[in-house]
Amino acid sequence: MTRKTLPAALLALAVLCGCGGAAESAAPPSPGAGAAKDKKPQLEAAKADCMKQKGFQYVPYVYPEPKEDEEGRRRMAGDYQAMRKFREKNGFGVFAMHVYPKELGNPQVKPDDPGEVNPNWKIQSSLSKAQLQAYRKAMGACEITTANQLLGLDLKQGTDLMREMSKASNRVVRTTVNSDPELVELAAAMATCLKGKGYAIADATPKSMSDRGHKEFLAQEDKLGRAQMDDVPDVAPAPKEDEAPMIYAPTLTPEQARPYLAKEVKAALDDLECGKDFYPAYLPKESAIRQQVNEQYGM
User: Whole-structure pTM over 0.85, yes or no?
Assistant: First the structure.
C-alpha cells in the first residue's frame, strides 16, 4: 500500500470509551459537577486568552449538545430492540463512521450545519507540521492551566486533559462495576455464550465484556490508519490500564469500509444476543459514573 502523510490533528482520534453506547445518566450528578459543566464557555474563553499570550490564535468554541431522542435513550439504557436496530446498521459504531460519515459525525467530514464546525480545525489545517506541533503543545498546556484554575483540578503540566479525564473515568468504572456481584454474574454468562459462538474471551469482567467488541474493531481501524501514515509506528503500543488508546483513523470511502462494517455488524449482533441480559443492568450504571467524571472535568 502506498503510504502517505495525513494531518494528525484531523485523524488521530482519542477514543475515550467503547461499549454498547454511552447511556443517559441513571443517577444525579455529584455535588458541584453541574457547576463545572456550566463553566464550558469560561473554560474556552480562558483557553483563548492563554493561547493568545503564547502567540497563537484560538477561537472559543463549545460543541453543541448532542440531540436526544427516545430511540437513542432506549438504546443507551440497554433496551434490546433499540440496540438491535442500531447494530443491524452500524455494528459497534466503528466502520459505520466511514460508511455513514455525516450521519454519525465523522470529524473528517464537514457537517451539513456550518455552525457545528469547530473553527479551530481550519486554523490548525493551515499550519505547517512544525507549527502544528507547537500549537498543539501550547493548547495542551493551556487546557491544563485553565482546568486547574476554574475547576479546582490538580493536573500536572505535560499531561493531556482528555486523556486524564478518560483515565479517571475508566478507573472509576472499572473499580465500581467489576465489584458488582450482579454484573459479574451477568458478564460471566455473556462470556460463556460468546465462547459458544466461537469468540475468544480473554477477560470476562463486566467492563471488559462491555467494550470488547468495540475495541476489537477499533484495533482494525487503527491498523488501517497507521498503514496510511508515515509519521506513526505501524504497530500500536500495548495499552495501559484505564488509558484510552490513540486511534489513527484511516481515510476510507463508504465502498471501501462496507466489507469491514459487514463483519462488524455480525459480531455486534452476536455480542448483543449474548449480552441481552447484561446490557440493561450494565449501561445505566456505567453512564452515571462517566457523566459524573466528565462533568467534574467540565465536559
Answer: no
Say how far apart CA 118 and CA 82 lie, in whole Å.
Answer: 31
Number of independent structural domains in the chain = 1
Domain that holds residue 241: 8-20+31-296
Residue type, 264: E
Strand partners, 248: 12
Kindly state the DSSP code that residue 247 receives in the 8-state scheme: E
Is residue 273 situated within a structural domain? Answer: yes
How many angstroms separate the CA atoms of 187 and 56, rounded? 49
Please name the helix (run of DSSP H) or strand (run of DSSP E) that holds residue 12, with its range, or none.
strand 12-14
* Cell numbers describing residue 189: 454468562
Is 230 domain-assigned? yes
Tell me whether residue 2 is in a domain. Answer: no
Interval 18-73: pLDDT, tens: 344 433 333 333 444 445 557 889 999 999 999 999 999 999 998 887 777 899 89
Q: Is 282 helix (H, G, I), strand (E, B) or coil?
A: helix
Does 1 map to a domain?
A: no
Gap between the Cα atoms of 171 and 290, Å rounded: 10
Give the sign of the dihedral formed by CA 223, CA 224, CA 230, CA 231. Answer: negative
3-state DSSP percent of the chain in helix, strand and coil, to 5:
60, 0, 40
Q: Which residues pair with 13 in a beta bridge?
A: 247
